[in-house]
Predict the structure of Acetylornithine aminotransferase.
Amino acid sequence: MTYLMPTYARQPISFVRGEGSYLYTADGTAYFDALTGIAVCGLGHCHPDISAAISEQASTLIHTSNLFGVDWQEKAGEMLCKAAGMDEVFFANSGAEANECALKLARLYAHQQGKARPKVVVMENSFHGRTLLSVSATANPKARAGFFTLDDDFVRVPFNDAQAVMALSDDADICAVLVEPIQGEGGLHTPSDGYLEELAKICDDNNWLLMLDEVQTGNGRTGKYFAYQHSTITPDVLTTAKGLGNGFPIGACMVRGKAVGLFGAGSHGSTYGGTPLGSRVVCAVYELLDEALMQNAQAQGEAIRTAILQKFATQGISVRGRGMMIGFAMPDTVDLSNAVNLARDEHHLLINVTGGNVIRLLPALNLSKADTQVLIDKLAAVFAQLFAQSPR
Ligand SMILES: *Cc1c(COP(=O)(O)O)cnc(C)c1O
């Protein structure tokens, strides 16, 4: 008997403790967590510095409201904006809220331009969250069904197709493009080199905002602070959450250039946005998130890809993603319906499947060489079994 609404297809297991890349059940059994709470605990579970910052701040000052100055919020804002190459930030409490903030900014921007019916360009296979506006921007039919989504507010085009966006240049209602630099929930689709540059040019030419959803790709996940930093562009609006708090719920919407100055006092807000506690956690995360750590994410991510490809390339596996955002696209002949259970129950490895046929890993950014090898060995054993059980 449960009192919880049945919104999740939960696996029949729960954990009572976490440390680094490992989660433990009540009987002490260790599981290798290659998902880190869906790209959230990028520094590993219960990183001692994060836990210390939380407990110290929890016994000093948790919340005062945004009626007053919040020193830790000022500091977190500076650290985050400097790392992200952005001018200003609004702190929210989740990814969906960060995107809601971005979409509201786009509407204000359109209003400023005298547009009557603003529309934002979004992508096929996109995921932007579950508030009504962010779920309307999301592609997944399961997330949208029955909610009377606000479809007049969006135009959807294929991902990684700058021409399709260019073709909308004549539509005077469009005010912004919202896109993930690498699609996370949609199957780890990584666009071709030059895609973001082309989008930035189209947005510039048409005076649209380029808004990047880096809720999943941000905070070191791809080996840079933000995935767009692998390109030559800078977005007008940048959202993030997940890894930002290493498990503490916090999100952020950042702006620069033409997106600065749209909000004034009273035009947006959040009771919990940027509390002393949440902000202190962001500072602690960014204190740890340095070049060496992000290089480790690149190197260990590459080691995992290379090792698995070496073993299974002849079986038709291909790799997706970047840094510690790792996808293995499996050939159609491989049945993945029991992959998650098999990995968990027989190999004590936590993974998931997105986009139908992609095994997704989101390991800790600070994975040691030894843990990288453990992960490769477990994964290779799972893959060998998956191939063995599928007809060729
Ligand atoms: C997870 C995710 C969101 C939603 O974040 P929540 O914190 O669950 O609201 C939005 N966009 C992307 C790209 C995500 O991966």
Notes: The first strand starts at residue 17 and ends at 19. The domain at 290-389 is CATH 3.90.1150.10 (Aspartate Aminotransferase, domain 1). The pocket of pyridoxal-5'-phosphate is lined by residues 94-96, 99, 127-129, 180, 184-185, 213, 215-216, 241-242 (CB under 6 Å).
